[in-house]
Amino acid sequence: MAEIIAQSSFNVKQLMIGVPDTITTQIGKRDYLLKQHGMDASSIAKRVKSLIVN
Fold it and tell me: What angle do CA 51, 43, 30 make, to 5 degrees?
């Protein structure tokens, strides 16, 4: 869906959220790793808020 929107003439803000394409050297519990990679609920909420406000 994101690809279709990006190629269209729609004036819609979109936020791509996904796992970074990197190899991590960090180990830990799931919640810790999500936070470290910006994939926890709080980090995602901040990115969404930033998109909406700007």
Answer: 145
Token pair of 16, please? 């791509």
Largest CA distance in the chain: 43
CA nearest to 12, candidates 3, 20, 21? 3
DSSP secondary structure of 31-47: HHHHHHTT-SHHHHHHH
- Segments of the chain scoring below 50 in pLDDT: none
8 and 41 in contact (C-beta within 8 Å)? no
Place of tokens 């269209």: 8
pTM of this structure: 0.70
CA distance 21 to 1: 20
